[in-house]
Design a protein that fits this description.
Layout: E1 8-10, H1 16-36, E2 56-57, H2 63-69, H3 75-79, E3 82-83, E4 85-86, E5 88-92, H4 95-111, E6 120-121, E7 124-129, E8 134-138, E9 150-151, E10 163-164, E11 173-181, E12 188-190, E13 193-196, E14 206-208, E15 218-222, E16 226-229, E17 232-235, E18 237-246
Parallel strand pairs: 2-3, 9-10
Antiparallel strand pairs: 1-15, 4-8, 5-7, 6-18, 7-18, 8-16, 11-15, 11-18, 12-17, 13-14, 13-16
């Protein structure tokens, strides 16, 4: 899909006080999850996150490059050699955060020219990237009718990318993704949000989103746009992520 704007941003939209409050909420939630045995490893479908196996990290590398490097292996065998994500995550559902963020979603959707129809949003994902943490190339969801969310039923349906316990998601797909930088300047190096706009885009295909660097900055983009978080070199990166869903494009 050719877009006039592949992402839309609001710099320093949230105050440092609000960002620090969200960081504290997220940290406390991570501790709660650890105490309850829930775990905090940020997961990916296909289990390509960092684990206790012998897989190696793969950051800022396209999977097609790996396929060329391992011509004697299938894509699934190649994926078994690497992990695609190294971070921690907790889920926040505080209404005051939705109330704060929702106007920015409507404003970006209109002013970007997308005018996507959407119905609701998922829980906020508070994400912690420690030194060395990353999330290699991915998109946040499919957009057609083959990739709608279906209702998850315990003991019946498998774990997978298209099942949900959230009834408001059933029949929908992710349409917009939102990322907020919670860190003050200088608290981490690396950890860039980087977009892949495709081989036939005008200008540079790969774009680092410098606009998100000021604390409290908000970036929105269609969920089908490929992106990554490059490895954090020093410090700890905290972000808040949200996915807005609606009926598939038609």
């Amino acid at each position: 899909m050719i877009l006039s704007n592949y992402y839309y941003y609001f710099q320093s939209a949230l105050s440092p006080e609000v960002c620090n409050s969200i960081i504290e909420l997220g940290k406390n939630k991570l501790i709660e999850q650890q105490k309850s045995g829930e775990g905090t490893t940020a997961v990916t479908f296909g289990q390509s996150q960092k684990g206790n196996d012998n897989r190696q990290p793969i950051a800022d590398v396209d999977w097609h490059q790996l396929i060329q490097q391992y011509p004697d292996k299938t894509p699934d065998q190649i994926k078994d050699l690497f992990y695609n994500r190294d971070s921690e995550a907790a889920w926040l559902r505080d209404q005051w955060i939705y109330d704060l963020i929702w106007p920015y979603i409507h404003k970006a959707n209109k002013e970007s020219g997308w005018l996507f129809e959407f119905a609701g949003a998922e829980a906020f994902q508070f994400t912690k990237y420690s030194s060395g943490g990353f999330y290699n190339w991915h998109n946040d969801g499919g957009s057609d009718h083959t990739q709608i969310f279906k209702k998850y039923i315990d003991g019946v349906t498998p774990d997978g990318p298209h099942y949900t316990r959230n009834n408001s998601q059933v029949g929908n797909v992710r349409k917009l993704s939102l990322t907020i930088n919670l860190n003050a300047p200088g608290e981490y190096e690396g950890g860039d949000l980087k977009f892949d706009l495709g081989p036939h885009c005008e200008g540079e295909r790969y774009q680092i989103c410098q606009e998100i660097r000021p604390q409290g900055s908000i970036v929105l983009f269609p969920s089908f746009v490929a992106h990554q978080v490059t490895p954090v070199k020093t410090g700890t990166r905290y972000s808040l992520v949200l996915w807005v869903h609606g009926r598939p494009f038609k």
